[in-house]
Amino acid sequence: MPERTTREQAMRTAGVIAGGIASANTVFWFLSDLYFDSHKLTGDIFDAVGLRGARLAFFVLSAVVGSAVFAAALAPRVIGHVLASLIGLASIAAAIGAFVGGLPAVVGCFLLVVGGLMPMLAWKSWHHSRAAWAFLIAMVVVCGGCDFFGATKVRGVLGVGLWTALIFPALQFVTVAALAMIRGEYREAT
What we know:
By secondary structure, this protein is mainly alpha-helical. The protein is built from eight helices and no strands.
């Protein structure tokens, strides 16, 4: 009986997430139309391709985040630690790109340190180190906040749309939520 209840709960969760994705995309569809129409009146050049691109990027963002949220709801411990490790590895790749791309050395060094620490902290947190878990959450929150508010800069550097640039910080916030869901495991840990 508990297995059936878990499956039903997972199906309800999936339904809520799918409804949220559909609602968000419907609202974005209408608001983006209004935005692009208002800028046509001011003489800015916006075309149908740009509108479709923005809508597609928003759909991808909402689908990726919705999928990650669903996975985190099912297995927060696994998803939180795996995403934290992947964020660390992505930070190492970004550090290499920063060094090669001529960005300030402090950016590359910061990304390299974060990239080295996150997988290590995720490993220690996986083995129930409360200090590693807390420090990991703090690092992901700070990096996620910086990435969120720096998304416009990242968009320009990478040459991608804003909604695409927001995927990474959104996944960082999902990581924080997943790790926060398992806080009870660390109450008695050292």
